[in-house]
Amino acid sequence: MSVGENLRGLMKHDGGRTLETMLSIFREFGYLPLEPHGLKSLMHRMPQKRERLILVAFRGDVAEDA
Question: What is the number of structural domains in the chain?
């Protein structure tokens, strides 16, 4: 499993092409990315107000066995 985080604005950067490029690279390396989600840190008792983008991907060979 691979997990990444960034600013939520990455979802709209360059019309969404930047994020799509990142997801396609995950796929090229054999990972199956889940749908990206934005999280509000304050809702999880984190001392930040800004929203974060969370990316999760599973190795394709592991995901197929599950």
Answer: 1
Structural domain boundaries, residue 46? 2-65
Q: What is the pLDDT of residues 3-57, one digit of tens each?
A: 888 888 999 999 999 999 999 999 999 999 999 988 887 777 777 777 889 999 9
Cα-only R_g, the chain: 13
pTM, entire model: 0.76
Q: Per-residue DSSP letters for 9-62?
A: GGGTGGGGHHHHHHHHHHHHTTEEEPPPEEEEGGGGT-S--SEEEEEEEEEHHH
Task: For residues 51 and 9, give the distance between their C-alpha atoms in angstroms, rounded to a whole number.
Answer: 9
Question: Is the dihedral angle over the CA atoms 11, 36, 64, 31 positive or is it negative?
Answer: positive
